[in-house]
Specification:
Layout (H helix, E strand, L loop, with lengths): L4 E7 L32 E6 L7 H4 L2 E3 L19 E6 L2 E5 L5 E5 L5 E5 L30 E8 L5 E4 L6 H8 L17 E6 L5 E6 L14 H4 L8 E7 L5 H15 L1 H4 L3 E6 L6 H12 L5 E3 L8 H14 L24 E6 L2 E5 L1 H8 L6 H13 L2 H7 L7 E4 L2 E4 L3
Parallel strand pairs: 1-3, 2-4, 9-11, 9-12, 12-13, 13-14, 16-17
Antiparallel strand pairs: 1-8, 2-7, 5-6, 5-8, 10-11, 15-16, 17-18
Length: 421
């Protein structure tokens, strides 16, 4: 199975909470605060890997979570940072943020990586808040939450040469002859329903990649048949080999139909250099071969008569193709990648206030909820600090707007208090 589009959900690690702790050694007088900081949450990266050729793995796993940071410890010991998570994707993957529609990365080089979601910062322990004036702070900080995102991955194969042609033109047979690829070959239309890649070895020892694209038919650019789904895979090829079936009724018209579909899909794609391979010469007579060879010569100077089934003229043709691979540089495909500020945006200061009954209000929000979790309701100093933070965040104004009255109950996490003006 070949999968060239996928959606994944990622969640970076939450930062660990700081803690309130004290030195309690027997011979240390007035030991002071010793609460350690929480560890940073793990980041999530996307990295391009040539060993992966499709997005099929994301059909079975589509949710990825980085490790959370540990909470701080006593004796000013800091919590361990969460491990970063690296998600491998094929080279040629375009990454889009589903919430904004922005393209945030074009991973077209081996080892290229992007930060997709930064882990939350660890909270500070009470040791960090000690000053000469305040030597025994009774409070600490919660860790920041991680970033949750939904990303769309789209794969554009990076091949040197792309094969074009109508269904059953002989593309799969051709790629099986010139490379080690073993595509499915049959005598019915749309045998090839997914792109096939084959590596062709050159005389010099190195090689190049050929992509066998599912057959195009008239109307492919509007979604007819299979070709429309895979036209984007030939956009990054150096050039194209257009395989024409000489056994069909009107090979010249078939050639023009394919090129018209390329033009409808994109002007850039229609201008990509093409080599014309007139295939199945073993199944037609000499007069037919010469007739169509002369007709196609009027359209292009690079026309070859081949038979993928018998191997006739294949060696000479591939020698020419190898030379063209060396001559024609890889096209530079410009993808408008936008600055990705969401990967580092850990601001979760938003909150909501709602009324649950006549005299009870609830305040919810990531940062507020975590502050409540590290606040001891029995400690006056911690409560004063929590109250000041709520005031600075505008929570009291939001409660007034929601209709809170003096004496009503306000719940935030495990804390519950009476509202007073």
């Amino acid at each position: 199975m070949f999968l060239d589009k996928a959606k994944i959900k990622i969640l970076s690690g939450k930062g660990g909470n700081g803690i309130v702790a004290w030195r309690r050694e027997k011979y240390v007088d007035k030991g002071g605060p010793a609460g350690g900081n929480g560890g940073k949450g793990g980041d999530i990266y996307l990295i391009a890997d040539r060993d992966i050729s499709t997005l099929m793995d994301f059909q079975f796993q589509s949710v990825f979570k980085a490790e959370n940071g540990e909470n701080g410890y006593i004796k000013t010991q800091h919590g361990r940072c969460g491990k970063d998570l690296y998600i491998k994707v094929p080279v040629g993957t375009i990454v889009k943020d589903c919430s904004t529609g922005k393209i945030i990365a074009d991973l077209n080089d081996e080892g290229q990586k992007i930060l997709a979601a930064q882990g939350g910062r660890g909270g500070r322990g009470n040791a960090c808040f000690a000053t000469p004036q305040k030597r025994a702070p009774q409070y600490c900080e919660p860790g920041e939450s991680g970033i949750e995102r939904t990303l769309e991955l789209e794969l554009k194969l990076i091949a040197d040469v792309g094969l074009l042609g109508l269904p059953n033109a002989g593309k799969s047979t051709f790629i099986s002859v010139v490379s080690s690829a073993k595509p499915k070959i049959a005598d019915y239309p749309f045998t090839t329903i997914v792109p096939n890649l084959g590596v062709v070895r050159k005389d010099s020892g190195d090689g190049f990649v050929i992509a066998d694209i599912p057959g195009l038919i008239e109307g492919a650019s509007e979604g007819t048949g299979l070709g429309h789904e895979f036209l984007r895979h030939v956009e990054r090829c150096r050039f194209l080999i257009h395989i024409v079936d000489l056994t069909l009724e009107n090979p010249l018209q078939n050639y023009k139909i394919i090129n018209e579909e390329l033009k409808k899909h994109s002007e850039t794609l229609s201008n990509v250099y093409q080599v014309i391979a007139l295939n199945k010469i073993d199944a037609v007579d000499e007069e037919t071969k010469q007739k169509y060879y002369n007709e196609f010569k009027k359209l292009s100077r690079d026309v070859f008569l081949i038979s993928a089934a018998t191997g006739e003229n294949i060696k000479e043709f591939m020698h020419f193709v190898s030379q063209k691979v060396d001559e024609i540089p890889k096209p530079v495909i410009k993808v408008d990648v936008e600055y990705d500020d969401a990967a580092k945006d850990n601001d979760d200061s938003s909150y909501s206030v709602y009324k649950v009954d006549k005299h009870t209000f609830v305040v919810e929000g990531g940062k507020i909820f975590r502050l409540a979790n590290v606040t001891d309701g029995r400690n006056t100093e911690q409560l004063y600090r929590f109250q000041n933070i709520l005031k600075s965040m505008g929570v009291f104004d939001a409660l007034k707007a929601a209709g809170v009255q003096e004496g009503d109950i306000v719940k935030i996490g495990h804390l519950e208090f009476d509202y007073l003006y």
